[in-house]
Amino acid sequence: MEVDVAVVGAGPAGSTFARIAAQAGLEVVVFDKRKELGNPVRCGEGLGVAEPMREGLELPRYAYSVEIYGAKVVAPNGKEIIMRNENTRGWVLERKYFDKWLGELAVDKGAKIYAYHRVFDAKKEDDGVTLSVMDENDKVSHVKAKLVISAEGMEALTARKLGFPTIHRLYDVDTCYQYEMKPYDHENLIELYFGNKIAPRGYVWVFPKAARKANVGIGIGAHLITGQKRGGLDGATPKVFLDEFIVNNDQLKEASKLLDFGGVISVGAPIDRFVDDRVMVIGTAAKQVDPIHGGGIELAMHAGTLAADAAIKAFEKNDFSKDMLYNGYEKPWRDSRGAELDLRLRLRKALEALSDDDLNYIFEAVSGNELLDVMAGNVAPVVAKVLKGRPSLLKVLGPLVKG
Ligand SMILES: Cc1cc2nc3c(=O)[nH]c(=O)nc-3n(C[C@H](O)[C@H](O)[C@H](O)COP(=O)(O)OP(=O)(O)OC[C@H]3O[C@@H](n4cnc5c(N)ncnc54)[C@H](O)[C@@H]3O)c2cc1C
Question: What's the count of helices (H) and strands (E) in the chain, helices before strands?
């Protein structure tokens, strides 16, 4: 098979790319190793208003479970802060249907999606990239594309085969566990629980779902697992921490667990280059994930949009060089999201250096609106306020206001 563009992965990044590129008339094929797009789900399913929605793409009712209006963050000592404004609206999705919907939109625009097709090798030639693909019957075929998009999420095998540095250090990933639980009565807010004893270098999330259900999950620094003793176990898993949280929560300890799964997510910096001749790496495959909360759906859709625009220009000029793709995709991405994610990474590093006592102090000292300011990038006034009351945090918080 010879095609214009081959996309590896039909998640939010790959399907967003495929929809826009196919709409512009490019011949796009998408391979996904899953039998069914979006299934099994490995996600907390929280999503703020993403760019394609701002531009008028309407989320169908079946693709989300509930609308959310903000967040409740909870300190180790139980003090709660509500964060709520016009920017904190969003959804808890039904990702199984959301991902399939995004795939269907791409098909409607002319892309061809092959589920249950695993890409296991990639070789670059002068006039294209050849992917080796195995189908559900273990039959291997070779697909030559003028342009290849790696939208493979955490695994990023194709990108790695094509020379991108996609391997993670343990320090740069959170190891996660999640249950779907019922009954749980909520206030249409996402709930985030912090504390070194609750979730070292991470947090517990309780994301509301319809019919009195909730996604109850945890992410903790993978490098901290080794040597931890917890619940009588050596090398405790995130599940052990999550179970401990649940038995100490008045509502959840009585609830049933309907589903459980584990996963890992990138919480470090994006990879240092997203493009090469004839290749673009987008979404979580490029480690485009928020280092504070591990959210990557919106970033994946944003990268898919920028990369599709770059691909359309590359085909117009018949130029698939890395310079062309850099200027079309990587540069606008770094200009629009680079600084924001860099600040989030510095915030994460500051958070992980705080003791529970420091966290309790900060939760007393700042308001929900001030926390929203921090998340929007306006860090200096809040840091100044905290340092006034607790100057000993200068070393930890100082780097946040540098530059
Ligand atoms: C436990 C957990 C909870 C999370 N919660 C949230 C959340 O609440 N909100 C949020 O925004 N983000 C969350 N994330 C992160 C989010 O799931 C990802 O950032 C997002 O899915 C990235 O989209 P993507 O399209 O880049 O990759 P993915 O959604 O991972 O899609 C990649 C696709 O590529 C396919 N693929 C991989 N390798 C191959 C191959 N070799 N051949 C063919 N197909 C391949 C996969 O099957 C998959 O369908 C969470 C992650 C985890 C692990």
Answer: 13, 20
Domain assignments of the chain as residue spans, ordered by start: 2-60+95-168+269-344, 170-266, 353-401
Using the mean position of ligand 1's atoms as its centre, give its distance from the Cα of residue 41 in Å: 9
Compute the residue count for the chain: 403
Give how far Cα 167 sits from Cα of 12, 83, 156, 171, Å: 21, 35, 8, 12
C-alpha–C-alpha distance, residues 131 and 120, integer Å:
8
Answer for the pair 162, 148: CB distance below 8 angstroms, yes or no.
Answer: yes
Which pLDDT score is estimated for 228?
56
Assess whether the C-beta atom of 195 lies below 6 angstroms from ligand 1.
no
Does residue 7 have its Cβ closer than 6 Å to ligand 1?
no
Other Cβ atoms within 10 Å of 100 Cβ, number: 21
Is residue 44 within 6 Å of ligand 1 at its C-beta? yes
pLDDT at 53: 78
Average pLDDT over residues 17-22: 98
CATH of domain 170-266: 3.30.9.10
**Is the Cβ atom of 12 under 6 angstroms away from ligand 1?**
yes
Query: Looking at domain 2-60+95-168+269-344, what is its CATH homologous superfamily?
Result: FAD/NAD(P)-binding domain (3.50.50.60)
pLDDT band per the 50, 70, 90 thresholds, residue 402: low
Domains 2-60+95-168+269-344 and 170-266 share a fold: no
For the entire predicted model, the pTM comes to: 0.96
Instruction: Give me the pLDDT at residue 223, please.
Output: 81
Of all protein residues, the one whose alpha carbon is nearest to atom 19 of ligand 1 is 296
Q: Which two tokens stand for residue 246?
A: 């649940």
pLDDT category at 54 given cuts 50, 70, 90 is confident
Atom of ligand 1 nearest to the CA of 283: 26
Residue 76 above 60 pLDDT? Answer: yes
